[in-house]
Amino acid sequence: MARAEQTNSRRALARAMSASKAPAISRAVAILRLLGRSGAPLRLQSVADELGLVPSTCLYVLRALVDEELVRFDPDTKRYSLDAGVLTLAGHWLRANEFTPLVQPVLEATSRACEVTMLGVQIVGLEHIVVVAMAQSGANLQISAQVGSRFPALISATGRCIAAFGDCDAGELRERFAALRWDDAPPFDAWLQQVEETRRLGYAVDSGNYIAGVTVVAAPVSQDAGAPSHALVALALGAGLPPSRLAKIGNALLDASRSLTRQLRGAT
Hints:
The protein is of the alpha+beta class and 268 residues long. It folds into 2 domains: 3-88, Arc Repressor Mutant, subunit A (Orthogonal Bundle), CATH 1.10.10.10; 97-267, GAF domain (Beta-Lactamase). It contains 10 helices and 9 strands. A hairpin with a 3-residue loop joins strand 4 (117-124) and strand 5. Helix 1 runs antiparallel to helix 2, helix 2 crosses helix 4 (55-67) and helix 6 runs antiparallel to helix 10. The longest helix is centred in the last third of the chain and has 25 residues, at 243-267. The protein starts with a helix and ends with a helix.
């Protein structure tokens, strides 16, 4: 893990620990997320170092997670990785979640019609968004994202939707915006103007700010009358799409997001 990512992991755990009434659970969740992000099983010392934990404390939590079949320990390599128990939990969540089965056919149809990669994301306040569904077109060159990936809430086009349609404090928006990492970050005042444009259009556009050479379009979905609970996100190669194609993608997402909002509110 890069030094910046390691520092972010430690800071995230420190914030969770300071706010948590159950520090052991915060440590367990941090370990599960670390193992989920890792491309390979990790040794005890690596896990402890990445999260800034005392090795003996880290070992205690890992053993508890192994007992619960959420983490697997390989006695030959002395390394830890996620175990199948995580899939059981995920399966329970997917069965109880109304958004995922509703959004999947919408993502697939929009992906084919607009030749883009489509994501369905769940919004967790101003903290982060989580990819819960995806679909890819049949194009030879396309962008990929994994279900379960987490991103800062205010980043890219989705962030503009959250700021435009949520009840957000201006001071908190500025503070969180300053911490975001972009390939080509817009000035905050320009970003606020884009938030206003998002409110007018009903969907947001990020033309190469978050990822160089990629246009991201997003439209909000609301499960109730409050702030957006989910979003539809389109990823297209090219940072300067023709206006006609951009409008086609944006209007397709807007129509789909309004339909999903009606369905979700009817299901609750």
